[in-house]
Specification:
Blueprint (H helix, E strand, L loop, with lengths): L1 E4 L4 H13 L4 E4 L10 H6 L7 E3 L5 E3 L1 H8 L10 H30 L10 H19 L12 H10 L13 H14 L19
Parallel strand pairs: 1-2
Antiparallel strand pairs: 1-3, 3-4
Helix pairs in contact: 1-3, 1-6, 4-5, 4-6, 5-7
Length: 210
């Protein structure tokens, strides 16, 4: 397999982390997204949205969107239940992450780390309020349970953890979310350090608009 990746992408980190859990070997193809490499005709044939990650199978088929890749790779593993109800519960949190975390915590982190807060100043209060609401929802859900779905670690935890455990880098205060912090600590122990978080600063083109 080939994983088309960008070092600073936490969406791509989700796939790297699951591959680590499953001991799956793959070739990394680094894509300089801020230099336009994800919008070349060749890459757009792999993913019309022009985004990473993209997983290319040995037969040439390509799958985009991190959560779709997680669902594909996790088939038959402990990280995705076979039971229809339990699987749907996992998917519930994948969709939650896409709908609520990406537009709030992930966006605020990107702006904060790439010096774009000033140009987005008019949006910051609303985004921060929405992000705090998302963290409150997660904290409330995690009170009295160890993981997001079915009381076991799954791709739901990988997906939500990717950006939420970095919410402080979005300028968000985390101290009041005790249950959420406990979950972050539990997941951190499982995740370990073998698949590190990478930063935009590692890409010299990270601050440049296309």
């Amino acid at each position: 397999m080939k994983l088309y990746d960008y070092a600073g992408s936490q969406n791509a980190w989700k796939v790297r982390q699951l591959c680590h859990h499953l001991h799956l070997e793959y070739e990394t193809v680094w894509v300089s997204i801020f230099e336009g490499e994800s919008h070349t005709p060749d890459f757009l044939r792999k993913n019309p949205a022009g985004a990473v990650p993209v997983l290319e199978l040995d037969d040439g088929r390509c799958l985009a969107e991190s959560h779709a890749i997680l669902l594909y790779l996790a088939q038959g593993s402990p990280y995705l239940p076979d039971d229809a109800w339990q699987r749907a519960r996992v998917c519930q949190w994948l969709f939650f992450e896409t709908d609520y975390v990406q537009s709030t915590v992930a966006t605020l982190r990107h702006w904060n780390l790439t010096g774009k807060n000033e140009r987005n100043a008019a949006q910051l209060p609303r985004r921060r309020a929405s992000a705090s609401h998302v963290l409150e929802l997660l904290d409330r859900h995690l009170q009295g349970q160890h993981f997001l779905a079915n009381e076991c670690y799954s791709i739901a935890d990988i997906a939500v953890y990717a950006y939420v455990h970095l919410a402080h880098e979005a300028g968000l205060e985390m101290a009041d979310y005790k249950a959420l912090l406990g979950w972050i600590e539990r997941v951190s122990k499982i995740v370990g350090t073998a698949v590190p978080v990478r930063y935009y600063s590692e890409d010299p083109f990270s601050g440049r608009d296309l």
